[in-house]
Amino acid sequence: MTTAPGLPPPRPIPLKDRSALVFIERAQLDVADGAFVAIDAHGMRTHVPVGGVACLLLEPGVRVSHAAIALAARAGTLLVWVGEGAVRLYSAGRPGGERADKLLWQARIALDEAARLRVVRKMYEMRFGEAAPQRRSVDQLRGIEGVRVRETYKLLARQYGVEWRGRDYDVSEWTEGDLPNRCLSAATACLHGLCEAAVLAAGYSPAIGFLHTGKALSFVYDIADLWKLDTVVPEAFRVAGLAQKGRLSMPEERAVRQACRDAFRRTGLLSKIIPQIDEVLSAGELEKPVPPPEASGPAFADPEEGP
Hints:
Blueprint: E1 19-24, E2 27-32, E3 35-39, E4 45-47, E5 53-58, E6 62-64, H1 66-75, E7 78-82, E8 89-92, H2 101-111, H3 113-128, H4 138-159, H5 179-201, H6 218-228, H7 232-244, H8 252-267, H9 270-282
Parallel strand pairs: 1-5, 2-6, 5-7
Antiparallel strand pairs: 2-3, 3-4, 7-8
Helix pairs in contact: 3-6, 5-6, 5-7, 5-8, 5-9, 7-8
């Protein structure tokens, strides 16, 4: 990220062109010779291409220097502090929040009950491939969605031969959860980290949700749910099935993380999240506010069109 004299600073790589996730544990993150590096207990350095990654998930045992935080912020890369195996999310940085026009648009839609319902109906349609039932409130649609998700869990459990007793977990008692629930929690944590990076990079608030409300990551949960059943949930049940059959050569949480990483790459998820955020919010049918002339530019500007 250092720049030779007389050259303009490098432009951030658009989020859609980045790798999804990099997990780091038991290392010191620092900047050496202008590069982002992870230094292990033996002093060995591993270069991390921070500008080409959507978010870094920092597990226990990671220490981060001020220079590393500053470089990640300039590169527009989200740092997320998570628990071991990335199964708990503690905190995250906030790149992409330098302008408020999209955030204000999001807030206006959330405060307009009719617009909010239109957004929730659009999310239902995108998630299940069919129009939401007519004359249903947000709470009723939430209940219908919950039933369909639970049925999907049962189908996937049968498909992969997983003993399934329902979604039941306690983040404060991780080891008390059964195998498939731990796999599901690890998988959704990966997806939530990726979606939070996209939400922030696009200039929206993670907290202003439509189907989910009242949480710091309500909108992240809304957006993640659009993709959950097509990406990480099948992988979680597949890994759980292999683990129950004794066919895993690594801890199940690690296997889930690798499977999710491959699913994100295979589906090209990063290139789809931000356009779908805009599509979802456009369903509210409220006009986007015009940013003031003095507003900062977008975090990730679209390339200029050629002649």
